[in-house]
Amino acid sequence: MDTIFALASAKGKSGIAVVRVSGENAHQACSVICGGLPSPRSAGLRKIRHKGEFIDEALVLAFEAGKSFTGEPVVELHIHGSIATTRAVLVALGDQPGLRMAEPGEFTRRALENGRLDLTQVEGLADLIDAETEAQRRQALAVMSGELGKRAKSWRADLVQALAFLDATIDFSEEEIPDGLLGHVLEIVDRLCESVEKELKGGAAAERIRDGFEVAIVGEPNVGKSSLLNVLAGRDAAITSDIAGTTRDVIEVRMDIGGLPVTLLDTAGIRDSDDVVEQIGVSRAIERAAAADIRIFLHVGEVRFPLEPRDGDLVVRAKADLAHHGATDGLLISAKTGLGVETLIDRLREVLTQRVAGSSLAIRERHRQILGNASCALTRARDGLKSGVLVELVSDDLRVAAMSMEMLIGKVGVEDLLGEIFSRFCIGK
Q1: Which of 43, 151, 408, 423 is deepest in the core (most CB within 10 A)?
Q2: Range 3-117: architecture per CATH
Q3: How far is C-alpha 62 from the chain's CA centre?
Q4: Of residues 316, 307, 363, the one with CA closest to residue 340
């Protein structure tokens, strides 16, 4: 296998840049340009030279095979982060025999192939790199720690034990089956059904942490939807005007609310119109609002909404600065003065927090599909044990569930998926 190298830190000028080299020739090649390497897992200051020219003074770390991120011999060069220095070091490495530039995600792929990470950890690492909010960071870190993979391995171990018991019954006649053996298998399957189903139930909330919520601001023209969006975004993301129908298309703004990723949608004012373009905007507004996770319904008097509020939606009276409002159970806001905006954000944060309560580590559609297949197989096995079907049929269902656990951690059946996953990684990771 080739020895690969790449810039592992961000491109551009920086105080320090990190160049990573991994593969069989990593130590030899870096020893040539550094004039020797420090002892493994110890930092040493070395001068980097190429073709007799001094390039930079670097902090160098070397890792042995089996003790590195990739599982291969690895060297990291911590150099001064100028563009010219980084380029010169990469050229020096490229001139060494057997070395080539890494492809996107190739270091992480080698970590997977060498057993340093399972596939769920790889996915967690990808999400950690992309994390924008605190909730996303915590979720990705939990998956990258290998917790989901550990659960899958534990479930598989229980399945193997259950299969061993079932296989033992095949060697006995019906009268000779040891007392309680099938009952013990049923206990294992019941426990697995409950555990896998619990993980599945928390998958929808976990996906929302990873991909974000959509919150649509809905109402008639001129109720202050765009003004509210601008206040929440802290910038003029939408054009505001007294002219009805100013907003024609859905405007999206990405935000962090309570550590959770939220996309706010400013939709066209809902009204009847002879303007064909505005009609399209209203149709899109209703469509996006219907699909949104949460809707903020704005009104200034008579409440007329094209959609029925759902649990978690917020009904808000806008333009509270223009008139006196008596006691009300609803929310009052003024985008102009800021009245009630913090209360609205707090209420929205409460709703979002409730939505993600009980989230699991099944953060991707792939995870939920695999766990769903395992759950179906386990349910068939449980029903079969209770109804007394052939032990061989129950064994087949348990083997399907065990295969699902291997697919979850990337042991089997994921070759077509790997290229798509690693193409999303940057070069150097």
Answers
A1: 408
A2: 2-Layer Sandwich (3.30)
A3: 31
A4: 316
Is the CB of residue 422 less than 8 Å from the CB of residue 108? yes
Q: Going by CATH, does the domain composed of 210-356 fall within 3.40.50.300? A: yes
Tens digits of residue pLDDT in 107-130: 999 999 999 999 999 999 989 988
> Tens of pLDDT along 139-168?
999 999 999 999 999 999 999 999 988 877
Q: Do 3-117 and 121-202+363-410 agree at the fold level?
A: no
User: Is the separation of the CB atoms in 250 and 267 below 8 Å?
Assistant: yes
C-alpha–C-alpha distance, residues 410 and 114, integer Å: 12
Domain chopping of the chain, boundaries: 3-117, 121-202+363-410, 210-356
Spatial distance between the Cα atoms of 228 and 267, rounded to a whole number of angstroms: 12
Q: Are 200 and 372 in contact (CB under 8 A)?
A: yes
CATH hierarchy code of domain 121-202+363-410: 1.20.120.430
* Higher pLDDT, residue 37 or 129: 37
pTM: 0.75
Q: Is 366 left (phi over 0), alpha (psi -120 to 50) or beta?
A: alpha
